[in-house]
Amino acid sequence: MMTAMTASVRSLAHVPRSRLIYQTAVRWRSSTPLNTVMLFVPQQEAWVVERMGKFHKILKPGLNFLIPILDNIKYVQSLKEIAIDVPQQSAITLDNVTLSIDGVLYLRIVDPYKASYGVEDAEFAITQLAQTTMRSELGKIHLDSVFRERENLNLGIVEAINKASEAWGIACLRYEIRDIKLPARVQEAMQMQVEAERKKRAAILESEGIREADINVAEGKKRSKILASEGDQQEQINQAQGEAQGLLSRAQARAKSLELLSAALENKNGMNAASLNVAELYVAAFQQLAKTNNTLILPATCNDVTQMVGQAMTMYKTLARKSDDSNTTPGHGISKPDGRTVDQLAEYYSDDDDKPKH
């Protein structure tokens, strides 16, 4: 008896802790319950009973009765979810990079009968299956995809394990890759690649910023030139409109003055007033000429103001009669004298007066 126990203890020294716990919960407890006729099965446990060495039934949680000597509790299976550490192992990716990877497997017994009689060591079988499946899945993808498709890799491993463990009455709930260790050189190369990628992105962002700044400056200059040209154009338009308005106002004022002058000449003393105005203009013109060093050819009678005024008035009357014959109707007053001003009449007269002198 002592020899058997010593051998059992020695064998436990080489068993992994997780495997030891699982076997304690699943296997070794099969020798713990004794057939005491009346048994109480705990919740979330299934006791497998054999009668005379053959499977008889599975005891459910609660009160159960067995026949002494004939019935024997062979296995005790826990129906709770169990977490198993998958040991670290080496795997080669599709691009021939060796990785060291481990994980955690979560499983649950769904069929106590298959878990008891379908496999000898369920924990060891599941662990080996997880390792081989993980190596197989890693060999299908590249190193870069290992990190990007980690979730898909976990799902693929769970799927493969469930297909194989269905006959064992065990369901794999999920598998999580815990640590991925790369060779030192590969890790350095990946770090350099990451740094180069970051520098590349930084250079691209910097160049895009410079380009945007240049575009904004060019757009600003373009906009300022457009606004300046539009301002100049509007200024020229306003200036032209102002000049046109000024010319129109002066023309209207001149026309009004001529109308008033024409009406004034029809009065009784209109001719005398016109003569006085011509004389004043004549004297003012000569005063202006005397202020400057100009050389002018003057008529011989320029010193006789009375004669000059008389000649101007005679010419005005002649032009007025001609305008009356062509532009006026009976009952109307004298129209505008051929559109000419008194200054123009005086200039015209001075030219006519010079002709016989030469």
TrEMBL record:
UniProt main location, coarse: mitochondrion
Gene Ontology CC, one term: mitochondrion
Keywords (A to Z) from UniProt: Mitochondrion
Gene Ontology BP, a term: mitochondrion organization
Gene3D superfamilies linked: Band 7 domain
Pfam families assigned to the protein according to its UniProt record, in alphabetical order: Band_7, Band_7_C
Location in or out of the cell: Mitochondrion
InterPro entries: Band7/mec-2_domain, Band_7, Band_7/SPFH_dom_sf, STML2-like_C, Stomatin_HflK_fam
PANTHER family cross-referenced by the UniProt entry: STOMATIN-LIKE PROTEIN 2, MITOCHONDRIAL
Recorded family membership: Belongs to the band 7/mec-2 family.
Protein name: Stomatin protein 2
Native organism: Daphnia magna
